[in-house]
Description:
A: mainly alpha, two-stranded antiparallel sheet
Amino acid sequence: MSITRREVWEIARLCRLALTEAELALYERQLGDILGYMEKLRGLDTTGVVPTTHAVPLCAPLRDDEAVAPLSREPVLAAAPRVRDGAFEVPRIVGGEDP
Amino acid sequence: MVASGAVGAVELAQAFLRRIAEHDPGLGCFLIVDEPGALAAAAAVDAARARGQALPALAGVPVALKDIFVTQGIETTCASRILRGWIPPYEGTPSARLRAAGAVLLGKLNLDEFAMGSSNENSSRGAVRNPWDKSCVPGGSSGGSAAAVAAGLCAAALGTDTGGSIRQPAALCGVSGLKPTYGRVSRYGVVAFASSLDQVGPLCRSAEDAALVLESIAGHDPKDATSIPEPVPRYRDFVGAGVRGLRIGVPKEYFAAGIEPEVERAVRDAIAELGAQGAQLVDISLPHTDYGIAAYYVLATAEASSNLARYDGVRHGPRAPAAGGLTEMYERTRAEGFGAEVKRRIMLGTYVLRSGYYEAYYGKAQQVRTLIRADFERAFAGCDAIVAPTSPVAAWKLGERVDDPLAMYLADVFTVAVNLAGLPAMSIPCGFRRGLPIGVQIIGRPLAESTLFQVAGAYQAATDWHARRPPLA
């Protein structure tokens, strides 16, 4: 299966990646090659085969209901590119203009 | 390996720091050297010894970490621009356990960005060079870890292995690298690539050293829900146990076309050596080997596309300027922050998970994963360990494959199935191809790391490939 330039553009939007025209062209070719190779999976009859999500059987263990100290706010916020009033600051998404 | 008192921990740390200063500029292994932290940790070991305290297993041993391990107060970037400047506010479990065992952390090591690659060329901080031939790649993604151990810049290193990222660079650099059973080592504080496949393990100069390191880092961790509760054996006791009576499976599919003749010869010689020591050699078949790469790259990229959604310029790393609002900020931050291979994998993973394609790719790959697991289960009914090449080729030239990602993926043909099945496997040196190391891979049943140490220990007792060192100019 090949992938079209339009699909590459759509995928990039879904991934939140602003790609250049040159990147779109490159990925169209490279993803096409890779997806073409993955076609070989179709040649295998897997009727009735149960899918594996994890190699090891997993359960969701519950920890004891004890209070633990969370990370303090200061070093967490110190890593952020923009903070204001003790919170992460992002561009405005609802109403009005960016300050 | 453990400083017994013949040499002080500070003295040892200083000697390694001098070697790093002298040789690393030509290799590019270290992203950060933490000299003050290393000397302080070493001084604490010396002080404890002076007080007559019992020393833990790795007291004074100079180690380094692939820069995918979260270290409190020390920048952690995964060799990505998108995490540049991130100083983690917490410590991950593997590094905390190493420190608790007395190890002296020298610094953080280069890798393929977010552990995505097989050559260590996908690093925003520059490629790592192979100490055996600086015009060649060290393998990846734990290329900095393997090269640093090979060059004697640290006594041991930690890496991660999602599809071969410990074993393949270990093979290409001539060191001993172990990927434990999925869940054997906690992944808490290890930046996630593909969560159902990622596992932490040691790269060392010998199987014996790897046994000591694994004993220190393995075991249950309540902070990782996938961590296995079974107790951790004394792996070191198995290094000298020998292979007499052990049944060793030789999978015919791992000696197929595409393998370099020198690699095949060296691996077959290694198998013959084990036979000479009393192991029983058994021909086996892993019939779905040929589907491993396709299934792996569907599943690994799908998981990666989800795991890497968190890098958005809000909580850490640089943010790209964007006048158009939040979505544009995300798109520009991620476009500027991720390198070409990471973008490729995020796109691929998003594609295979997309509505309409999900069953054809992701669902199918999960079924093939079941078939690959079943191959191993059948094989292990007739043998105790499987021995095969780690990589079909020795190290290649820097730049040779960067423009052909599919060719790069295909080089992982002998390592990915082990991750899909969650098995433990180890690569140890078994020869050279025109001056470049060759690795032989030992694969075990789930939680049978002890068997790997038995096989590797027996081989290394009879050979000296693992003791050879690259001539550093």
